[in-house]
Amino acid sequence: MNHQRSEPGFEPINRGYNATFRWGKLSLGLVVPIEAYPESSVPSMARHLERVQMAEQLGFAAVWLRDVPFHVPSFGDAGQILDPFVYLGLLVGKTEQIALGVASIVLPLRHPAHVAKAAASVDVLSGGRLLLGVASGDRPSEYPALGIPFEERGSRFRDSMLYIQRMSEDFPAFATALGSPSGGDLLPKPVGGRLPLLITGSSRQPPEWLAENGDGWMTYPRNVAEQGRWIQSLREKGEAAGNTPKPAMQSLYIDLVDDPDAPVQPIHLGFRSGIHQLRAYLKSLEAIGMNHVALNLRFNQADIEATLQRLADELLPEFMG
What CATH superfamily is the domain 15-318? Predict the structure, then answer.
């Protein structure tokens, strides 16, 4: 399928990717479940569907699910509990515009043929709204549960990426350690001709490989200057390899307090602050080339619906993808 580029910068892929990632701009999304559960690793999933629909109505660019096949208490977070692809199927039928992201599918724990078919199915059913984050995984206890050596996750990740990318072709024939398809075709095909694959962290790969592969990069929050150097380095390496620019995104836990001038107080992978400090931080990310921030309200102390409305009223007009 041919796409007409609306702005310079990123190569268009599908509706969700094109709307969420815009060159020189920052958009905002939300991590599912959209609820506070600071004292437990397992969310209640209360009003989970209504809050996703509210996020869409308010104009957030994307919602992000996680792939947590086993609840490991030491890891500290069971995510949305529900299998991401099953849950995406529900969200496809209950939303119309918002991008549906996964941050991220742990590729070494799933066969890439199943990932490719499930992801393409979501992409087709949603009219091209899927954003597929992929990762090598960081919970060692999950690997023996599936009979997969933890030390092989880097090579399995690379093979899975190749497999998924080639499955977008018609009747592909290739060989990997995870299988050698020939003579059959995997359907459906993604709406935009390929799945938008966003690589999480390093996924056990060298920087040059990261710069040349995938359709964007995900990372955790860190010092803004360091984040800027990371984005610049990957984009420079990608340009040297002849690639078009790729978007970058990060997560951010927030606890938005009533006082708009409240200073920043660090929390796990984010901070507590008033709206002014949050706005300033997001503006600083936009200035270094970050294209999307997925806000996580797990530690938010204020009412969730009220916080969503406040973010929409006071921040979204400035950060529309």
Answer: Luciferase-like domain (3.20.20.30)
